[in-house]
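Course assignment 3, question 2. Fill in each field.
Student: A.L.
Task: Predict the tertiary structure for the chain below.
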Amino acid sequence: MNLEANDCRAALRAPDGVVREDGVAFQKEEAIGFFTPRRRYGLRIRGEERLLGERTWLMGVLNVTPDSFSDGGRHLECEAAVAHGLALFGAGADIVDVGGESSRPGGACRVDVGEELRRVIPVVRALRRRCDGWISVDTSKAAVAEAALDAGADIINDVSALRFDAALGGVAARHGVPLVLMHSRGGFAELHDSPHYEDVMGEIVTELRHALGRAGRAGVALQQTIVDPGIGFAKQAGHSLEVLRRLDEMARLDRPVLIGPSRKSVIGHVLDRPVGLRKWGTAAAVAVCAMGGAHIVRVHEVDEMRDVTRIVDAVRGEP
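Answer field:
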């Protein structure tokens, strides 16, 4: 059936009723760009207020473990780890994230507190002596976080979102430091199992809201929390792609968003490439994250991903 011109325009009408003169429908927000608006948030680091959201921050990965999925064993010696951390800062990292316990897929083993302290604390202490960049400790153990903060760390990054060690929230509260709450499910051994989701982003947002509640009850100021949807943790590749596709929904939590797509299995799944050949897939994922409103991206190749985020920020009209 042929429609009159006016009927055609009505049929093409966007949900909010915007139609161009040539009859093409579009959403109102598309008129100001195809990216997700990024809210600004104040964050206190080392007693100073820092503004998140004006540009994409970079968190460089420094694993001091023998078994991390992409760089395990490379930085076991303290001097090698410190040199790499300094190189990450030199390449443009805003934060260097030091981790002494691998949470890799495929059978990572839980590390006892003493061993994790032995791996992490000398590196944090040496980095603090030799630079003034912001240091994050990637741990789910209160004792490790406490010691790392005493050694000079500035941020706690917890993959369990306070599910593994409830005392960790109290450590963050006492020190007044930013706390990253990452979405995951199950115990340590089940972090990479793939539970069923009816609505992956809806459930992530709900579960992270519960994590914010745990942090609040532990005394952590809401303004000092950051949320991470946990790409690759308790998620199949399709789930992780859905997270990237719907990252803007994290704004429902009204907290800054950190996300770590670097070299993840979803990239290997899409490109059929091993971990060492996922740099360009990572670059694409980082661009998607920045366009989707992420405030911080956690990456291995800081120098290259800095170029990616600078271009995205320029397109967004940000510094």
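Instructor remarks: The chain has ten helices and ten strands. The two ends are 52 Å apart (CA to CA).
Grade: pending
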